[in-house]
TrEMBL record:
Protein name: Saccharopine dehydrogenase NADP binding domain-containing protein
Domain called Saccharopine dehydrogenase NADP binding: residue spans: 15-150
Pfam families: Sacchrp_dh_NADP
Family: Belongs to the saccharopine dehydrogenase family.
Listed GO biological process terms: glycolipid biosynthetic process
InterPro entries assigned: NAD(P)-bd_dom_sf, Saccharopine_DH-like_oxidrdct, Sacchrp_dh_NADP-bd
GO cellular component, one term: lipid droplet
Chain residue ranges for the region called Disordered: 216-238
Matches recorded under PANTHER family: SACCHAROPINE DEHYDROGENASE-LIKE OXIDOREDUCTASE
């Protein structure tokens, strides 16, 4: 019934934000209000918010609209444990923005409600197991229904995806990259404090690591891109990256997994995925964009300016890695997050002052060949380095809402140029759109830093 209603009449809302009373959800609401009827050309004409507690949703709306009075926005009741409530809200909108995590606990029914009602879905998930499970279970159904399901539309993993694409496109033929390593630096003149839900997701990720490995082993091998030169060596556990002035250690985030999925799709579809109703000009534009993208081995490291900072990251990683494997250990980690994260996470999240003072830099250090045709020569090593950078405000409460809302506006305004449907990555969906330009207009910069020849 919900599906028939959705198809026969336009839904009353352009966007419904699910989980708008949560820590991140209220910032997503605040960012969305900037674009609600902001101009005659804004595609966001109607907005509603949904969650379990209408009182808390009303409080979030007042907070998000301050110092202005709250606008007349519909508040809907929905619970991830009540599938009918999810079907109801999904039938009322073109697009759901899901801010309810951890997604491995709450995300599946929201995705199902969206493709059953042919409603597009975006979220801010950074959990590889959830994203890959959704792809396995629901990609074909979402494609058949014409429903886009795109996770990781926040700091996880758009800066990594667009940052890699930006660096890759600086390699003008015949040059080509072999590796691009991203170095994330979190900066603030106050304490850097993360969202408890992010910490909880990391703890549950360790607990479910075996499930993710089994899921990946059970799937057919994905297409592998052709990358010039041999795979890079593993390298040291702790790296001193002198070019960007950081000590760094590998970051077990979702970024690398999401990028690999994008490159696998691109390997099978070298011109990208066709839009549901693209014009000839848009087809040519998309094909030109992807023709300039060169795949590379990709990884992400987190860095600080001091070795002591890296030792802190390693210590927190050891706590989560060891204690997250058994139930009592997980109870300790989640009961005392500030203790086991050495102050990096707390249940109440950061203060507004801590959010406003924080920022990030993500450096992309690419090594490759000035002439890719020589990469197969014996003992040939990369002879070129290109460094680029993505930089922006605090990652969880400012950058993530900026990215999610801009992805949503593109989905509303350019739906005919986006793929018909399926469970896809933000890179393959939004890469050839104007998302990078939109982010630049909203405080997230993309810069080419240097290009140089490497000594042999």
């Amino acid at each position: 019934m919900a599906e028939e209603t959705h198809l026969s009449t336009p839904p009353p809302y352009d966007i419904i934000i699910l989980g708008a009373s949560g820590f991140t959800g209220q910032y997503v609401l605040k960012e969305s209000l900037k674009f609600l009827n902001s101009s005659s050309s804004s595609p966001l004409k109607s907005l509603a918010i949904a969650g379990r507690n209408p009182t808390k949703l009303a409080q979030s709306l007042s907070w998000a609209s301050h110092p202005n009075p709250p606008p007349n926005i519909t508040i809907l009741t929905a619970d991830t444990l009540n599938f009918d409530s999810l079907l109801h809200i999904a039938s009322l909108t073109k697009l759901i923005l899901n801010c309810v995590g951890p997604f491995r606990l709450h995300g599946d029914p929201v995705v199902r409600a969206c493709f059953e009602t042919r409603t597009d879905y975006l979220d801010i998930c950074g959990e590889p197991e959830f994203m890959e499970k959704m792809e396995v279970q629901y990609h074909d159904q979402a494609f058949d229904k014409g429903c886009l399901v795109v996770s990781a539309c926040g700091f996880d993993s758009v800066p990594a995806e667009l940052g890699l694409l930006f660096n890759s496109r600086q390699w003008v033929s015949p040059s080509a990259p072999n590796t691009v390593e991203a170095y994330l630096s979190l900066e603030s003149d106050k304490r850097i404090v993360g969202n408890f839900a992010t910490y909880e997701s990391a703890v549950l990720g360790v607990a479910n690591a075996d499930s993710l490995r089994q899921l990946r082993r059970s799937r057919p091998k994905k297409a592998r891109p052709q990358i010039p030169g041999p795979p890079p060596p593993r390298g040291p556990t702790i790296e001193q990256q002198k070019e960007v002035g950081l000590w760094a250690v590998r970051l077990p985030s979702a970024d690398s997994a999401v990028v690999r999925r994008t490159l696998a799709i691109l390997t099978e579809n070298p011109s990208g995925l066709r839009g549901v109703n693209e014009s000839a000009d848009k087809i040519a534009e998309r094909e030109r964009f992807w023709s300039t993208v060169k795949p590379a081995h990709f990884g992400v490291k987190i860095g600080t300016k001091s070795l002591l900072g890296i030792l802190k990251f390693i210590t927190v990683g050891v706590f989560i890695g060891l204690l997250g494997k058994f139930s009592f250990g997980r109870w300790l980690l989640l009961k005392f997050p500030s203790v086991f994260s050495l102050g990096g996470f707390r249940k109440k999240g950061p203060t507004e002052a801590e959010v406003s003072h924080a920022s990030f830099k993500m450096w992309f250090v690419g090594h490759g060949f000035s002439d890719s045709s020589t990469s197969s020569l014996e003992n040939k090593k990369p002879d070129t380095e290109i460094i680029s950078r993505v930089m922006g405000p605090e990652i969880g409460y400012i950058t993530t809402p900026i990215i999610l809302v801009q992805c949503a506006l593109i989905t509303l305004n350019q739906r005919q140029n986006l793929p018909k449907g399926g469970v896809l990555t933000p890179g393959i969906v939004f890469g050839p759109t104007d998302l990078q330009e939109r982010l630049q207009q909203n405080g997230i910069s993309f810069d080419l830093i240097s290009k140089r020849a490497l000594s042999s």
